[in-house]
Design goal:
This protein has 588 residues and is an alpha/beta fold. The protein has 3 domains: 182 residues, Immunoglobulin-like (Sandwich); 281 residues, TIM Barrel (Alpha-Beta Barrel), CATH 3.20.20; 73 residues, no CATH class. The chain is built from 11 helices and 26 strands. Strands 1, 2, 3, 4, 7, 11, 12 and 13 form an 8-stranded mixed beta sheet that branches. Strand 5 and strand 6 form a beta hairpin. Helix 1 packs across helix 11. The longest helix is centred in the C-terminal third of the chain and has 31 residues. It is globular and about 80 Å long.
Amino acid sequence: MLYVSLLFFISISFFSSVSYGNQLKVQAISIMDRVFKDTKIDVQPNAEIKLWLAKNEYHSAQIAFSSDDSVELKAVSISDLKNSKTDVIIKSDNCSIRVPEYVPVEWNTRATPKQELDGRAPAMYPDPLPDFIPLEFEGSRSIWITCYASGNTLAGRYQGKLTVEIDNNNIQLPVELNVWEFSLPEESTLYVTNWLHASQLVKQYDVRRYSGKYWELINLVAEDLKAHRQNVIFTRLNIIQSTQLSDGSYKFDFKHYEKWVGIFLKHGFQAIEAGPLFHPKSFTIIDSTNRKKIRFNKTKLKEFLESKKGKLFLSQFLNALHDKNVQLGINDMYLQHVGDEARVEERGLYRDLVKLVHQNMPGVPVIDATHLEDHQRAGMMDIAVTNMHADESVAVSKIAKDWGKWWYTAGFRPRGKMPNRFIDYPLYKMRMISWLSWRYDMSGYLHYAYNWWQLPDNETPWKQVQYKKYSSGDAWVVYPPRDKTIRAPISSLRWETFRDGLEDYEYFVLLKNSVEAMQKSLVDMTDSAEAGYLKLSLAEGQALLDLLNAQIKSKTEYPRDPLQIEDIRIKIGVWLSANLHSSEVPVQ
């Protein structure tokens, strides 16, 4: 009965709408539905916002508006949210109000059936999610309300209102925030890395590298990454200055590296993922005789690394870096890339570089994305990060056993029925990346770009989301501020949805761990009444695990209905709240 009531409640709050006057319509819809300018809104009564979330969790609601005439969205505000039983208040500044903006998608992702796409290109797609500012619109538009319950929030039901002013209409919608008793862990269980490209921050924000504003920006980016449950930071080693001395040896300046590492450690990151050694911009090497930087292209770098001189440099560099990591206390959380998606003909160089890493950085695992088969990549890496479309890696070396299995998605694969993060893919696919990571027992997820804003003709991602054969939005999930002010990058619908999936992943882990703990407790339990209650709770928990396994059948068969996805999450949340703690569960 409980589960049926919950599904009924969610269906009302997600798909209810109301009409104001002859033209303006308002509807609360799923956060996994994009609101295009021509999205149809049906008239239904009682629009309202209901959110269910754990402590230390973010969750969002989406309100859509539609008007046949041009109207002005003048103001949106949310009140403090009050628990009527305890008088405890969640302040309104725990919630943010943002308005999706539109970017041009010129063509739909190739090798994808029409039913696997969201909309038809060319079209303007909602994706960037900047803070609310007054705007005029005709047709349909939406706002996003995102609320956060901190780890010390008292469980219960909090109520308030959302006020929206459009033209002469003053619209007030009830808001209900239900906080469960349990909390999501501060440290993410799944290793997650979306590569941060500092060079693109320098370019798009127009800041000087290593200036005060640069470090202010890096700190803000670290906050954004951590708030979206990223816990691995991609770190290019050209942040370390190497100076070639007259006797052929090198000295190394780690001051910028130390500052970078310190910022991300302060924000609770769990791993330092060092950039590839075989990349033209891997190193900053200064010739002491003329104070000029030694520049490489890929061919020259390969020749250098294969030479006696290059191997001497790399040995000294890696040895000094290892000593610095030990000094900073990060040696056990350090990963080293050699390259990225190596070709068959590059295997010899990769194996030589891996040997140098192992010799000079004892215990450090080499991690690389690869499309090579197990037998082809022997000796090339310790952690093989395979593409989601391929058979996941099962051969994990002894040196990397604590890091588990990893996979990645990228611009060309996976496509079709599998999930990926393209703008023209339904948002539930972004969420399913984490669901499949749990189902396939993956320990880590990698993507090459948090902010690879490198576009032809120096265009901005606000005006161009595709280039060459790369699908829309593949190269970033955030946008640079248009005014270049020093603040965190602008979020996107996809970035918020990806966090939702990572939070779902924590629900699944808590559920599985709780069920296993109950099974162990039953073995030594002698009190029959207590054992009977535990058996009942265990049966309900196991049923939820079975439901998850039944719903996530494969990489192409998984939940696609936003209502179903949210219903599964809520069922697990209710069970966790009832079984991880004995306090009152806020359920109608």
